[in-house]
Amino acid sequence: MKKRCISLLMVCLLCVPIAQAGFTDVPADAWYASQLDALVSRGAITGYEDGRFAPDAPITVAEYIKILVSCTMTEAAVNAFGGDGGNWSDKYIRACQSLGVLEGFDTSTDHLAKPITRNEAAWLTVAFARRNGETLAVPEGIERALRDYRSTYYTYQTAVGMAYGAGLISGYSNRTFGGEGNLRRSEAVSIITRLLDPTLRTTPVIPDYDYGAPVPQSAPVDDGFFADAVFIGDSLVDGFGAFSGLKQGTFMGVTSLNVFTVLAKGREQVFRTRTFGKIYVLLGINEIGYGTTRVISQYDTVLQRFRELQPTADIYVQSLLPVCEAKLTATERKNHVTNYYVREMNAALQQLCEKHGVYFVNVHEAFVDANGGLPASKCWDSVHLNVEGNKEWLAYLRTHTV
């Protein structure tokens, strides 16, 4: 039985086409297969003695430098930097240093043996590109394309921006670069072939607006800005319509309204029969005790429906306001109506806005006090704003538009 299983395994392996380079773990249709073949043919990269390439394994700093050098210099030129004994990578490091691209880079033995990070790969790749005469620049708006760009360590930040802008290294689908993560061997193949052949490079996508960030402060608008707006939400929206002083727009504030009922009882029909330029949504405080995951899942569906019903409208999702915990009722506390869960919900709402490409209005920041709650002077119970609070709410919206 064991012999038969081994035979079947060998048959299955033979049935899987492999790349021309002959690696047993690289299918011919792998996204990097043709690029790998090109580097192998140049003698720039090799696999392991057992015939594997190990595409998902990390590549070391020394290995990455070796590939770069092998694609830049002839074998004879590299061998000229060799010598008796030492490490296999010594000649490649000395050859690379002769090119003037390792100044300021850690070439200690310990570091060369470590997996190279994506930040370091960007630094080295950009250094080679510039040595080859390329003029690289960090594209305007890079922070909108890569959410972690601002937090990238300053030593690598410019190189990451240049590498992304030149289409040498792509970000991930969640709009991060992941610079501290290890570079995989398959990723290294793709990056270096892009360095060698600009026609293979990706076109960087810079969003025109950073939907992952709150709407920034802007010049104040007059009430006419809200003439084509609809404000839909719970009793807080009802209070806003009654006491903010805004006389423009449509108000659909309903006591106890939540994300599960927002489009019920004829409200969806309003969005079917009327056209709005702006939709201001405030939901979440009534259902906060249901759990953030459940509420956000339904909020996701609601935003999608709003987009279907009003495809040309700008959608503004308003954050939950802080609550005055000193005035919370026993029932509210039991239902987790606390500032901890308000903050958790707001963080999830901000991520949801980025997903849908809608605006996140952080009204929370206009009211939160030093203790993280709603000042008692701005509300008449634990949640609802008084007249002064509603007027401040309108002032905030006037100065946070797109």
Describe the structure.
The chain is mainly alpha-helical. Helices cover 41% and strands 5% of the residues. It contains 17 helices and five strands. The chain has a five-stranded parallel beta sheet with strand order 2-1-3-4-5, with helices on both faces. Helix 3 runs parallel beside helix 7 (118-131) and helix 13 runs parallel beside helix 15. Mean pLDDT is 92; it is low at 1-17.
How is this fold's topology laid out?
Layout: H1 2-15, H2 33-41, H3 61-70, H4 75-79, H5 90-98, H6 109-112, H7 118-131, H8 142-145, H9 154-165, H10 185-196, E1 229-233, H11 235-243, E2 250-253, H12 267-273, E3 278-282, H13 292-309, E4 314-318, H14 330-334, H15 339-356, E5 359-361, H16 364-367, H17 387-398
Helix pairs in contact: 2-10, 3-5, 3-7, 7-9, 7-10, 13-15
Quickly list its features.
41% helix, single chain, 5-stranded parallel beta sheet, 5% strand, 402 residues, mainly alpha, disordered N terminus
Q: Distance N terminus to C terminus?
A: 70 Å
Neighbour order of strands in the largest sheet: 2-1-3-4-5
Cα-atom radius of gyration: 29 Å
- Describe the main β-sheet briefly: 5 strands, parallel
Give me the strand/helix succession: HHHHHHHHHHEHEHEHEHHEHH
**Tally of DSSP helical segments:** 17
Name the average pLDDT.
Answer: 92
Approximate shape: elongated
Q: How many strands?
A: 5
Percent of residues in β-strands:
5-15%
Helix content percent band: 40-55%
Q: Which class of secondary structure composition applies to the elements?
A: mainly alpha
